[in-house]
Amino acid sequence: MAPSNAEAVAWLDRWPDWPGPALAIHGPAGCGKTHLARVWQAMSGAVEVAADRLTADAAPVDLSGGARAVLVEDVGEAIASGADETALFHLYNHLAAAGGTLLLTGAEPPARWALALPDLASRLRAAPAVRVGPPDDALLSAVLVKLFTDRQLRVSGEVVHWLTLHMERSFDAARRLVDQLDAAALAERRGITVALARGVLGIPAPRVRGRGRTAGDG
Length: 218
Fold this sequence. Notes:
Layout: H1 6-14, E1 22-26, H2 33-44, E2 47-48, H3 60-64, E3 69-72, H4 75-80, H5 85-97, E4 101-106, H6 118-126, E5 129-131, H7 137-150, H8 157-166, H9 171-188, H10 194-201
Parallel strand pairs: 1-4, 1-5, 2-3, 3-4
Helix pairs in contact: 7-8, 7-9, 9-10
């Protein structure tokens, strides 16, 4: 757990003791919403409903598959793209009546979703909404170390530290960057160094007077 996701983790740990049937987790792309949702799904036995299945003819029981815990990701984006609000409204009511729970994720909180159905809007805006922020240095470093370890790549702490200072701060970016570094190291038949990372990220090395490279850029 890190400061960026501590509140969301605390809410998920409280399940099923939520004050209402729904909880919304929101934050920028790559902040870890999906990871948290998967952890909750494993803990609760929730069924995931794809947002594009929220259509006018979708019955809530069919959507839930009889489960009393349901996960729907990227809801705000789906609503903006034309997902059927009535289907989500009926799903919410079905779970509320059954004593079930609904976890929703989105880039923005429900209060900013383009909801046109007043009854659905009032229910979702009354639900707790917790933000997940971009990963901090410690969490991002831990993610990079795990991604490198999963690939059996030996990378120094110096390189990991440099990457956390210069890369885009998201889990998605970390995965892409490790992919790129692995491919570049393989193509160039060399280890993963700060110099290699500079090349992958397109960051020129600062010039040191009288030398063409920077100390530590081996």
